[in-house]
């Protein structure tokens, strides 16, 4: 029965980690996957998380099912973080939020539900380029995929004119997938003025914004990084969707903590949307897992732990900024001054401009793993590996 089943291609990001783990070379560096590691090269366990975890261990609880839409305290805290504690949308009951299996789970449940709502002609416009799994998730959910211009290789910035032109051509009702901050893979974000223009256009053209926010707090802080969501609310856009992830911001990758929020026109519409989100989750994985949600809610519900979390997040952010600046200096010192743009990019990723062949050389000759598109994860750099990486990148850039 299974004789004809073909091998699936390896995942371009997680498959690369498999190769990295199998590589016996001791000096290997994984700049492929988007994972923040600390100065010692480890995924950090945040102090605020450790504190909640210890409290949970002191008071063990029975493990019943969570509700289909997750832990209520987690959903409430998530709404405040995304939409703002004083959000009129929240006060009006217009937001339906459900805990999901990571940000990817939020994207998939959201895509499945939108496909049901929009019907067989459903279309989604995705930035060029984007995180590869965006295409996979929406295609698998039955969407027709479109692209809008985003990255301009010449300026190494946003092709804003191209972006507005492409969005302006979309049919009303098209889903527009937007990266709220720390664009993956380019690290190139819209500024506040550009966001205002994009939001106005989305509203005017009756497009359906779907905001993916997986790096809140990794550019300028949790409030500033949520600007796109806040502007959509302020502009009076009456329907939009948000998928968020705590993998990075809480360093809880393996706990799969994310959430999906649908914003409806009013309380009654939000209630109907919530029922549909729940039905979609039930048909998919029934209900989410409890532990990670207890950790996140435990931190966000305590003023003291929340402040500590913001501090720890700030440290991660600061270390990434410092690594970007150090990498630029070290590359320049090794005869590769063309990488100054790394410090203009935001978040974990840099679209380096390295070619596929240069990336291959990095892997084969130096055991440095990057994506074939040239995306590198600067959050994986530290004092111990940065000189080696700078030397290798400078070498492959010359030859
Ligand atoms: C990445 O882009 O590396 C991360 O979002 C991890 C993933 O799942 O691909």
Automatic annotation (TrEMBL):
Subunit structure: Homodimer.
Signal recorded as keyword: no
Segments traversing the membrane: none
Family: Belongs to the class-I pyridoxal-phosphate-dependent aminotransferase family.
GO biological process, one term: L-phenylalanine biosynthetic process from chorismate via phenylpyruvate
UniProt name for this protein: Aminotransferase
Gene3D superfamilies assigned: Aspartate Aminotransferase, domain 1, Type I PLP-dependent aspartate aminotransferase-like (Major domain)
PANTHER family in the record: AROMATIC-AMINO-ACID AMINOTRANSFERASE, ASPARTATE AMINOTRANSFERASE
């Amino acid at each position: 029965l299974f004789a004809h089943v073909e091998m699936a291609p390896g995942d371009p990001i997680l498959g690369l980690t498999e190769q990295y783990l199998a590589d016996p070379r001791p000096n290997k560096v994984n700049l492929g996957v988007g994972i923040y590691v600390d100065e010692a090269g480890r995924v950090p366990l945040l102090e605020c998380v450790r504190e909640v975890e210890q409290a949970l261990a002191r008071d063990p609880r029975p493990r019943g099912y969570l509700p289909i839409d997750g832990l209520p305290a987690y959903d409430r805290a998530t709404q405040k973080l995304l939409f703002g504690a004083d959000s009129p949308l929240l006060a009006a009951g217009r937001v339906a939020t459900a805990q999901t299996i990571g940000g990817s789970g939020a994207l998939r449940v959201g895509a499945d539900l939108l496909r049901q709502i929009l019907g067989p002609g459903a279309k989604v416009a995705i930035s060029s380029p984007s995180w590869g799994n965006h295409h996979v998730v929406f295609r698998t959910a039955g969407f027709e995929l479109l692209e809008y211009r985003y990255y301009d290789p010449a300026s190494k910035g946003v092709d804003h004119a191209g972006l507005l032109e492409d969005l302006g051509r979309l049919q009303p009702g098209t889903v527009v997938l937007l990266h709220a901050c720390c664009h993956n893979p380019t690290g190139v974000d819209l500024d506040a003025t550009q966001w205002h223009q994009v939001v106005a256009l989305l509203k005017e053209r009756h497009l359906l914004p779907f905001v993916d926010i997986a790096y809140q707090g990794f550019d300028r802080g949790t409030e500033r990084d949520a600007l796109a969501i806040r502007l959509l609310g302020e502009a009076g856009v009456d329907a939009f969707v948000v998928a968020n992830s705590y993998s990075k911001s809480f360093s809880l990758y393996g706990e799969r903590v994310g959430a999906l929020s649908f914003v409806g026109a009013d309380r009654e519409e939000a209630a109907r949307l919530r029922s549909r989100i729940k039905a979609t989750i039930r048909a998919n994985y029934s209900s989410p897992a409890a532990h990670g949600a207890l950790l996140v809610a435990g931190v966000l519900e305590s003023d003291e732990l929340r402040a500590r979390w913001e501090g720890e997040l700030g440290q991660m952010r600061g270390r990434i900024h410092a690594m970007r600046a150090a990498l630029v200096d070290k590359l320049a010192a090794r005869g590769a001054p063309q990488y100054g743009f790394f410090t203009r990019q935001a978040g974990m990723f840099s679209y380096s401009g390295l070619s596929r062949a240069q990336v291959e050389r990095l892997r084969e000759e130096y055991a440095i793993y990057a994506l074939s598109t040239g995306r590198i994860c600067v959050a994986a750099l530290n004092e111990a590996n940065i000189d080696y990486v700078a030397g290798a990148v400078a070498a492959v850039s010359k030859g």
